[in-house]
Specification:
globular; eight-stranded mixed β-sheet; Rossmann fold; about 45% helix; alpha/beta
Length: about 270
Amino acid sequence: MSTVLVTGATGGLGAALARDLAGRGWTVIVHGRDAERARGLADELGPPSTAVVADLASLDDVRRLAAEVKATTPALHVLVNNAGVGFGPPGGGRELSRDGHELRFAVNYLAPVLLTRELLPLLKASAPARVVNVGSVGQAPLDLDDLRFDHGYDGTVAYRRAKLALAAWTFDLAAEVEADGVTVNVLHPASLMPTAMVAEARSGTIDSVEDGLRATRRLVLDPALAGTTGRYFDRESPARARPEAYDPTFRARLREATDRILGTSVTT
């Protein structure tokens, strides 16, 4: 029996993926920020699925979440970094995380980096294992000298900046852990699915949650992708992220900035 941790599993794509995998016999660790919703979904899925609760806008909560998973989970075969903060309402102002970082950068980038780092020993011990990062086709240039986005803030751009950083880090991590039997990929699952974050942005919908589920599930399950790592997918097709994500100089500067923020090395 395989075990998967799905972050942001109490709604939208995360909930659909959790239900799908549980229906296939997987043990699903359901993460959510709201304890009642997370535990309610875990109860719906039934044992051995469980719930974990954490606010990914807090780095201390991310560390606590990882510690709880390591203490209670003998094996972890897949980590799906799905939780995220969207564009925000039209005209919305800049928001900061509990630690004082720009909120979208904190939740959509810093949290998955830290959580994955903390869980890597468990993933390696459970190999073959997979890390699936839910990114976006919407990516924007990231100003490494203004990670708090103090100047010229825009919620949509903030979201896209974080997704570029996530793609760049995906490629770095993939190269680092390839020899350990852990694959790491990032995908744009679908465009503007009918989720809470899309509704908040009032931008309309394009694709269905089922579209996103199909693309994400493929990266989790498809045996043909067992050796595929360090790739970006647009739905189910191999694609290219923004050029910066492949630029060694940009990635090195991003690593240094991430190290400073997290206070721990994110490359070994």
